[in-house]
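#onboarding

Welcome to the new folks! Below is a worked example of what a typical request in this channel looks like: someone posts a single protein sequence, and someone else replies with the predicted structure as tokens. Don't worry about understanding the tokens yet, we'll cover that in week two.

Example request:
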Amino acid sequence: MTRIHFHESFYDIIQQGEKTQTARIEEPHYPLGKAMADFSDGRSLPIEIVEISYLTINEMSLDQVRKDGFKTKDELWDALLGFYPHLQENDPLMLVEFRCIMN
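Example response:
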């Protein structure tokens, strides 16, 4: 089963359906379908990956930024730099859209 790792601070907003996308670089292309969101504190949530796309931060719409759980591109950019300090604005981001599946 596909497993996507998240920082524990995203657990609640993923569980509540407020974060339905994650932006990644340097990771393999995830297959569509059922997967598991694994968090840094050991918790997990079942998810379904529904779409994969590739855009730069500048190409992202505000709706896509909000799907990622942020209000502005600047907030998302700051968070991405925390995970990927070498990220450049013209680097393509893999946008993984998903939905939480509660059993």
